[in-house]
Please model this.
Amino acid sequence: MERVARWRATASATGAADRPSAEAGVRLAYRNAGLAEPERIVWADSPHHAVHLIARGADALGGEPGPCVRDTVRNVPWAAERARLLDALGPLGWSAHWATTGGQLGESADLLVRRLRQGLIEEGAPTGSAGRPETAPDAPARRAERVRKEGELRLLLLDAVLGQHDAAWLCAFDTEGPLGGIAAVARAAGWWWPYEKVAVVCERPLVLHRDEAGRLDRADGPAVAYPDGFALHSWRGMPVPGAFLDELAGLTPERIRKEENAELRRVMLEHFGYERYLAESGAVPLHRDGTGRLWSIPLVGDEDVVMVEVVNSTPEPDGTSRTYWLRVPPSTTTAREGVAWTFGLTAAEYAPLRET
Model:
């Protein structure tokens, strides 16, 4: 559907914002909501920059911003349009309409927004202080300060209109009427914060890399990055430190075994490859039978990674046979039991008519 394709492109857009169009959209959104236009529009290079400007208040924003008007500008017209469409289509019609419009984008957009919020909170309320152990005498005070900062950030983030990342729900509605201003900002810019006298509007990211599931994913740099340097690194949706990615190209089995963080160790294994790790570690299969070979990778401080190596009995067009690696529960004792588990069966129940 053309509408979905357009809004998908909006949600993924990178590069400089169209500032004149975004500012016109902000003013239209205020007028559509029955409000006076903001006295000032302040630009920020990222959501991280924006929340710091807002936290500093009048000095950073050129004057008092006044109360947040997000509900009036965004929530009220959105609720009215949704009620109108629901009344016109009925519950079943609305469900079908959503499934073919916003439902096509919703999960991917939610993943990105949640990750950005998480990263913003971590940046603004770090989980530790350099050189200060959690057992230090001032640790309780530092933890309390982190909790306070995190609470303030969460409240600020609730004031945001998500701009281009509101694409999923905008896709489902007529964006030429009451939602026209909000849609115009979404097409031209990133997140924005509407206050009575000032609106703070963000640039779009310069870089955005996601996998087929919509998760942030990049092995050789930031998965999302903004003009001011605010960036998040991620491997298949899992947050990782930027320096960690630099190590992936030179991994060895020994380095993987020495990694103390269980989640990062799993990332290392996925990147290095289970088959390669087993081969270079001199591993011996735990069990083999007609279905395949069962392997186990012991990990200190974590459950063992147990895999079944299965060779496809149907040759590829070039005559080769493809090997698959199936991760199974650590309690698996035979290859057949592991393959059966992937089908939701016991080893006794698993009896394929034909292997593929």
User: Anything to note?
Assistant: The CA atoms of residues 109 and 115 lie 10 Å apart.
